[in-house]
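Dear colleague,

Thank you for sharing your sequence with our group. We've completed the structure prediction you requested, and as agreed, I am returning the results in plain text so they can be pasted directly into your records. Please verify that the sequence below matches your submission; if there's any discrepancy, let me know and we will rerun it promptly.
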Amino acid sequence: MNIPVVFEDDWLLVVNKPAGLLSVPTPKGELRTLTSILNQDAQERGLKYRLHPCHRLDRQTSGLIVFAKGKSIEKKMAYAFRNRLVHKKYIAFVHGKLANTEGKINLGIEGRHALTQYRVIKQKSNYCVVEVIPVTGRTNQIRIHFKSIQHPLIGEDRFAFRKDFALRFKRLCLEAKELQFRHPVTGKGLKFSIDLAQDLKGFIASHD
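Please find the predicted structure tokens below.
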């Protein structure tokens, strides 16, 4: 599988994960994941390091994901993510018309504080394209928060029933579009951004 590389140096690898691919194995023990594909490629090229994911994306979510070359770098990046030193921006397609063009969703998840900021960037007849900033990083936070305000993501099949909505899509309409953080070794400010995935562009083109 061709995994687009967005950035690489001696310590980090940033790639654009395609939708439909797990970041890491689940308890089911899947053998083919983004991590295994990248490590197999590194091994075949005779590289000595092992890649460790610094965070995760859902199987259905596309977009930017950071890997560390070695455990010591992974620990530094894990600290940055845990302490909200990594700024993340997503693009989501949500059902319906949001009452406010921008706002915050402040709703705890599993007893822990969770905060999401959003801004509508395109309003269509029966859905919105939304820029989303998860201030906290709880599991499934964006999916849960938009479901909580009765505007679940298009393609959602875990926190909402697809049959309840006229719009359908083959996968979750969610993409990790932008990452910004300081390099764990050099201290240099890094910012990465990608274009919207082709299938999401196609959805907009066919649902105008």
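Summary note from our side: The domain at 87-164 is CATH 3.30.2350.10 (Pseudouridine synthase).

Kind regards,
the structure core
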